[in-house]
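Lecture notes, part 5. Sequence design as translation. It can be helpful to think of inverse folding as translation between two languages: the language of shapes and the language of residues. The source text, in C-alpha cells, appears below.
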C-alpha cells in the first residue's frame, strides 16, 4: 500500500496540486492511504471506498504518532509537504519539496516569521536521512536544496506537475489587463506591486490590475477599496474557482509576478498555458520556469512601475515555457 502524506497542505497552490495528485492516484487503481490535514475534510476529490483516509490536525506531534503506529504498514510513501517522516520507515520514501523559504529566508519578512522558518529548517536537517529521494518542481530548487542540506544531487529528482486549467471559448484578451493570481503573504509582495501599478497609472492613465486576495487579508482588502474610491482600476476577485481563474487568464494580456520567493510559481505556468505574457521578478525561480517577456527588480517600486511602462511598447516578445507536466512519471514512481 502507498501512503500519501499531505498533512501540511490545506490551501493555495499546494492544495491545487494535492487535489490533482489525488485525482490521478484514484484513477491509477493503486491502493492508497491518505494522511490529510483535518482542514480539508470533505474538501478534496472523491476517494474510492477501497482506499483509506486519516484526517489529523497538522503538527509534528500528531504526524509522529501516526508514523509510530503505522511504520510497517506501507511499501511506498510520498511525503507531499517538504518534511520526510519523523522516523525511519520500512518503506521506499519520497519527499516532495516545494518550499523555497526553507532554502533561503528572505530579508524582507518579520523576525517572528524568520524564527518560525528557522525552526522548521532545523527539523528538516534532523530528519533528512529518513527519505530515499527528494522530488522538486524545478532545477533551481534542486540546486538550492542539494546545497543547503548537503544532499547528493542524484537523490533529488525534478518532476514538475500541475493541473491543466478548464478550457474556455470565445474570450478576447483585453489589452493592458494585468493580473497577479496569489494569496497574500509577506514574500508575495502585493504592497509593492500595488504601489508600482498606481505610479504607472498616475503617469499613463491606462491599464487594469486584477488580484485574488481573500477577505481575511483585511489590510490589503481595505487598501484596494480606498484606491478604488480614488479612481485606480484595481479589481480584487477574492477567492476564485478553477473555471473563473481560467476565464481571468484567458482575458488578460499580462501576468505580473512580483513574488520574492517561489519553489515553482504555479501561476506562471498557468498564465503561459493561457497565452499570457509574463512580467516576472528578476529572480532564479522565474527563469527556471520560463523565458519571461519583461523582468524587474521585485524589491523596487520604481522598477515595478517601469515594467508596467515597458508593457506599453509594441511587439513585446512572447513568454516561452521551460517546464511541462510530468504527473505520469510521478504516478509511475509510486506503482
Amino acid at each position: 500500500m502507498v501512503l500519501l502524506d499531505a498533512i501540511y497542505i490545506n490551501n493555495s497552490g499546494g492544495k491545487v496540486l494535492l487535489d490533482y495528485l489525488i485525482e490521478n492516484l484514484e484513477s491509477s487503481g493503486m491502493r492508497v492511504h491518505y494522511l490529510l490535514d483535518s482542514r480539508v475534510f470533505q474538501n478534496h476529490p472523491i476517494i474510492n471506498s477501497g482506499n483509506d483516509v486519516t484526517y489529523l490536525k497538522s503538527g509534528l506531534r500528531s504526524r509522529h504518532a501516526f508514523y509510530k503506529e503505522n511504520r510497517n504498514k506501507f511499501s511506498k510513501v510520498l511525503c507531499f509537504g517538504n518534511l520526510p517522516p519523523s522516523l525511519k520507515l520500512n518503506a521506499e520514501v519520497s519527499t516532495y519539496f516545494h518550499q523555497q523559504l526553507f532554502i533561503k529566508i528572505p530579508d524582507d519578512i518579520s523576525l517572528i516569521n524568520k524564527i518560525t522558518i528557522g525552526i522548521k529548517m532545523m527539523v528538516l536537517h534532523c530528519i533528512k536521512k529518513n527519505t530515499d529521494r527528494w522530488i522538486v518542481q524545478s532545477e533551481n530548487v534542486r540546486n538550492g536544496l542539494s546545497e543547503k542540506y548537503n544532499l547528493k544531487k542524484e537523490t533529488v529528482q525534478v518532476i514538475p506537475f500541475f493541473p491543466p486549467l478548464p478550457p474556455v471559448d470565445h474570450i478576447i484578451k483585453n489589452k493592458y489587463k494585468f493580473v497577479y493570481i496569489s494569496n497574500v503573504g509577506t514574500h508575495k509582495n502585493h504592497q509593492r506591486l500595488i504601489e508600482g501599478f498606481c505610479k504607472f497609472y498616475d503617469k499613463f492613465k491606462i491599464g487594469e490590475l486584477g488580484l485574488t486576495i481573500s477577505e481575511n487579508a483585511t489590510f490589503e482588502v481595505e487598501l484596494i477599496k480606498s484606491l478604488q474610491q480614488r479612481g485606480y482600476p484595481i479589481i480584487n476577485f477574492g477567492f476564485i474557482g478553477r473555471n473563473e481563474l481560467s476565464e481571468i487568464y484567458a482575458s488578460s494580456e499580462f501576468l505580473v509576478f512580483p513574488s520574492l520567493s517561489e519553489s515553482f510559481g504555479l501561476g506562471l505556468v498557468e498564465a503561459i498555458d493561457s497565452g499570457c505574457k509574463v512580467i516576472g521578478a528578476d529572480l532564479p525561480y522565474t527563469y527556471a520556469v520560463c523565458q519571461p517577456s519583461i523582468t524587474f527588480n521585485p524589491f523596487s517600486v520604481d522598477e515595478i512601475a517601469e515594467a508596467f511602462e515597458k508593457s506599453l511598447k509594441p511587439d513585446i516578445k512572447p513568454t516561452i515555457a521551460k517546464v511541462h507536466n510530468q504527473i505520469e512519471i510521478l504516478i509511475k514512481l509510486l506503482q
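The translated text above is only one of many valid answers, since several sequences can fold into similar shapes. The longest strand covers residues 174-180.
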